[in-house]
Amino acid sequence: MTEFFESLSALLAFYAIAIVASLVLVVQIALALLGFDDVDADLDAGGGMGFLSVRALVAFFGGLGWTGVIMLENGASLPAATAAGIGAGLALMLMMAWIIRLIYSFQETGTIDLKNAIGQVGTVYVTVPARRSGTGRIRVAVQGRVKIAAALTGSGEPITAEKRVRVTDLVDSRTLLVEPLGEIGEEG
Question: What's the pTM value of the predicted model, to 2 decimals?
Fold first, then answer.
């Protein structure tokens, strides 16, 4: 009888891991669809390409949880289910890290240099908070292509969506400093 309860609690633990990982995956997909595609906060300094990125960890726990559930539901022992879950999780984690590196390698070859955005006029895509208190996103033409980039402002007021801005500087390799423009048609 105790074996039944031990296997039941192990099954519930695997289900909990799998469901939480799946929910995090759904949130990541939703954020990506809303334009927040660089939300992946790395645990190492890999710039979105690391082995321990949030996406890779979600893949690990998803593989661990769902493989453990499948194994236990098909009569495997807890050690076998755990080993198979860890193996599947590591395989998915490595695959996700490889896919992320591949995607970022394609992005890097675009050779868009955001320094070329300085002086350009763009449009706010996601509200840019006031006084550099957070990043927003803008659409701006750079090197003949429209780029959506992270943006900060020193302005005392937030710059809301669809407002026009001028890029004044490059904060880092991925973030632009912007200032608000007046009404449409004002270039000053």
Answer: 0.50
Tokens describing residue 87 = 């193996």
Residue with tokens 């300085």: 118
The first and second tokens of residue 67, run together, are: 């493989």
Structural domains present in the chain: 2-108 (no CATH), 114-180 (2.40.50.140)
- What DSSP letter does each residue of 24-64 carry, written as one string? HHHHHHHHHHTT-TT----SSSSTT--TT-HHHHHHHHHHH
The average pLDDT across 86-92 equals 95
Phi, psi of 164 (to 5 degrees): -90, 145
Residue appearing with tokens 């390409």 = 49
Alpha carbon 61 to its chain centroid, in Å, reads 17
91 vs 113, more confident: 91
Which tokens belong to 118? 């300085």
Compute φ and ψ for 83, nearest 5 degrees.
-65, -45
CA 116 from centroid of its chain's CA atoms = 25
